Amino acid sequence: MSSANIVEQAKRTAAFAAVDKHVDSSVRVLGIGSGSTVVYAAERLLELKNEGKLHPDLLCVPTSFQSKQLIVDAGLRAVDLDDLPVLDAASASFASIDVTIDGADEVDSELNAIKGGGGAHLREKLVANASRKLVLIADSRKDSETLGTKWEKGIPVEVSPLAWRTIKRQLERLVPQSRAQSAALASSAAFSFANPKAELRQAVRKAGPVVTDNGNFILDVAVGSIYDPLSVEQLIKMIPGVIEVGIFSGMAKEAWFGNEDGSIVCRV
Ligand code: 5RP
Q1: ipTM greater than 0.85, yes or no?
Q2: Quick one: DSSP state of residue 161?
Q3: In 3-state terms, what secondary structure has residue 257?
Q4: Which strands, in side-by-side order, build the sheet including 155-159?
Q5: One of 8, 106, 124, 254 is an active-site residue; which one?
Q6: Mapping DSSP to helix (H, G, I), strand (E, B) and coil, where does residue 87 land?
Q7: How confident is the model at residue 219 (pLDDT cuts 50, 70, 90)?
Q8: Which Gene Ontology molecular-function terms are recorded (predicted)?
């Protein structure tokens, strides 16, 4: 098997295992992430549907145009987050999604993640936030001790096109430590680069900026190793014009990684 096929197989193994563990006929509302690994999750959902193992009225919440297509192609019902019926109005939780299965670009040892390689992280974070459980699926190249050490393209940051150059300059002046607002940053560096580099994400052959499903641009911000994901997420989020940051701190409950030898690692 070619190395590309081995990686695809690893993604598929992780996706199938996560779906089999978390999706059965008791799941009423399911969030569907974006990216190439989630394609395999949709493949497994179609099999389970054909075997009659899904809830007959299952609602699936998409995180992108691609994700909606996957849901529809699997013969499942797509419903936007805010169009979900309130099934349990008396619940103390606002979360309306039982479980969301999504991919990731890098996941650290505490299940903090970098997401947004496909530019869908705004809706992915909205859906994750409304989920009782976020389960990540990936091949083992994404399994990392410290964020920023494996995914070297930088943190995807969705920004308003109205001020992307200003936001880029501001991101490139982020300081790794004490001058920042957060108390946590005062005592230890949150990331390693003294001068972060922010690149406007371009379409192939520099055919212009990538435009997200929401009509915004993406800046990929290389900050080196991310020692304090929550502080970095907060620091970037505070910049006016930043719509969403592709750091998901403390959101995932579980991550499944497929290895090249066919084995799987599940981290909780
Ligand atoms: C899209 C994402 C994807 O989930 C992430 O990029 C992983 O993609 P893939 O499964 O293709 O590696 O966050 O915004």
Answers
A1: yes
A2: G
A3: strand
A4: 197-200, 217-222, 155-159, 242-245
A5: 124
A6: coil
A7: very high
A8: ribose-5-phosphate isomerase activity
